[in-house]
């Protein structure tokens, strides 16, 4: 048989597929997971932590808020840890549990299985009724049902696209934009409507074709998985030969060839033909077959989560060098992210020696030589509040007073903004002792919402030997 994607026989036409709803152990927990993830998606833009949205990706202001913390465009290096952590985490999960992401957490599966197919079933009925309706001529009943279904699809697509946009604008601004005239926010209006149409097309019509034709992850799985990775698999040793009335029941395997596992499959494949790229590991065939096994009084698990080695009766080894490397690198990436966030100061301070002479001698007398050093000080407010910033003007070293002259401070820095100052540090040469340089701790004070914080920046004072 020529190799082709199931339900896309190669003539450019698609074979419509109407999967039966499966019921059982995995279905129950998949539904719970789906509701949890759907609720998280819809609620997250409305949840506030420390007065900030739980998640806000404000691209025009280059400000990103995650769970009470604000990040700015200059925090981009942090993205390395985020991307590395999630990519390596996915490698680790795939190498051990196969396509568990596809079946349990992928937005495409959740959208089709958890939302759109439920609406379709509500309006058009179960898989048999849906198939019959599709084949029926366009009479009044069909028109009403199809129109109702697509209207509800449109409403849910609008809701999803608006919620999605709220992640970029904040729930409050989206609400006020939605209530005002479209002409006042034309760009937003076009973006949200285009997103609505894409969602409607994808979940309403394109459906499982995204998994079987477009998604690169499905194609990558053969590289990431091996004979010890868990997959949804049919136990051929137990199932074959399939039921044949001409054979005695002892000669038959456990598979009664009822096709229930095929009828429930959202991508329309027959898992008994072996592991296939179109399998999204949704577990529906496990539930369907377990149901049959219970009825025929055979042990459950003819189709189950199993590794290729497990199917051959060999030991499955999950923990191997590859797995440890993936897990180690994932943990390292998240540790890097954690340390980055932990060490990230709300005030970013850069002190550079100004581009003139390294020092100036201001005055020389018998007992005292006065020196000045000139620095440029960059202060960036990395918090989400306005910040008043000032410098402690005096210091003491080796019994000599150090004077700090800052013509432009104190100043208020808005969130995410930075200011540049010139500072002059006046000190006696005795401060340096017999050396030509010495470290000095500059004390910078910030006041934000009446909370005062002190920061220390170490700089190097220089003078003649
Ligand atoms: S559901 Fe089970 S018994 Fe029925 S055809 Fe599939 S594998 Fe065989
Ligand atoms: S073969 Fe089974 S697990 Fe794979 S997509 Fe079909 S029903 Fe889901």
Automatic annotation (TrEMBL):
Signal peptide: none
Keyword Transport annotated: yes
Keyword Cytoplasm set for record: no
Pfam families: Fer4_18, Fer4_5, FixG_C
GO CC term, one of those recorded: plasma membrane
Molecular function GO labels: 4 iron, 4 sulfur cluster binding; metal ion binding
InterPro entries named in the record: 4Fe4S_Fe-S-bd (IPR017896), 4Fe4S_Fe_S_CS (IPR017900), Cyt_c_oxidase_cbb3_FixG (IPR014116), Electron_Trans/Redox (IPR051684), FixG_C (IPR032879), Ig-like_fold (IPR013783)
Transmembrane segments: 35-57, 77-98, 150-168, 188-206, 324-342
Domain 4Fe-4S ferredoxin-type: 246-274
Keywords: 4Fe-4S, Electron transport, Iron, Iron-sulfur, Membrane, Metal-binding, Transmembrane, Transmembrane helix, Transport
Protein name: 4Fe-4S ferredoxin-type domain-containing protein
Lineage of the organism: Bacteria, Pseudomonadati, Planctomycetota, Candidatus Brocadiia, Candidatus Brocadiales
